[in-house]
Amino acid sequence: MTTEATPVAADQPTIALDPVDLALIDLLREDGRATFSDMGNEVSLSGEAIRHRIDRLERGGVIKVVGSVSPEVLGFRTFAGVAINVSKSAREVAEHLATFPATDFVVSTAGDFDVLVEVVCRDDDELLQVLDDIRAVPGVQGCHTFLYLSFEKYGYDTSGGLGGSRRQNGLSQQDPLTLDHADMAIIQALREDGRASYTDLAAVSGLTYPSARRRVLRLLETGVLHINTMVNRLLSQGQVQAGIGISVAGDIRAAAREISDLPEVGMIITTSGRHDLMLEVTCRDKADFADFVGTRLRAIKSVTATRTYGYLHIHKLPYTWSGLT
Known about the structure:
Blueprint: E1 2-4, H1 19-30, H2 36-43, H3 47-59, E2 63-68, E3 78-86, H4 90-98, E4 103-110, E5 115-121, H5 124-135, E6 140-154, H6 181-192, H7 198-205, H8 209-221, E7 226-231, H9 233-236, E8 240-248, H10 252-259, E9 265-272, E10 277-283, H11 286-296, E11 303-316
Parallel strand pairs: 1-11
Antiparallel strand pairs: 2-7, 3-5, 3-6, 4-5, 4-11, 6-9, 8-10, 8-11, 9-10
Domain HTH asnC-type: 17-77
InterPro entries: AsnC-type_HTH_dom, Dimeric_a/b-barrel, Tscrpt_reg_AsnC-like, Tscrpt_reg_AsnC/Lrp_C, WH-like_DNA-bd_sf, WH_DNA-bd_sf
Pfam family, one: HTH_AsnC-type
């Protein structure tokens, strides 16, 4: 077995979080639209104090509360990871790719590739066009595509990277839903601010306050809309995140089941292309990450080779995907 690991370093400053900040993040993960007053009751602070703390976390890029619609709901059924090498500033290329409507997740990395991108498309023809568009970006020297076949593990609450817009095992075959103008207006407003007030949502949708509230609750209850509190772990806790490409011997899904028992693994995707599996892992620090790759992952006999892509800077988080616009 070969294991190719690379140093992982974040160029983003870590923001110090106290126990109250961490408690608030947990509360927002449970309910992204929880009121300041209710959260204040949980941590024995005033609603105004909670407002200031959450504003600090949002302005610092630690959290972002957003509304999202799973791409499958709208008929998007082709997903892929694209690993890119560049001949100029990786940050500049990554920021350019983050503006593409089809990109769901963009991160600059250390390893064989400079940038990893996840794309969401309606079908293979659209994926081909998106890949051509990526190759046409100035500075893109080459790219490798990993077509997603199934999602074998989604161990995150709402803060995953790769595969972040999908939580089910396998690709959904449900029929896309029809959403009217008011639905779309509400979804667009909640994509920008998942905590937007019902008053604001009524204004943008042209509905009355009670109708807007009922519409939001219907979208949430039917599972069309999700309110997600995205957490930038590189900023919030100084943790190490990385994508890991895995080659396995034997049954790929059996290997995925064994790997899924490792608590550091938040995401497992079966792919066609260079790797049999793509993982996303989160470790306490670099030493923990080195032990994970060099010891705990290596202990799984079916794993024959790994390649690591350490996250340096996250340029676009999941759930900011804009394909529905």
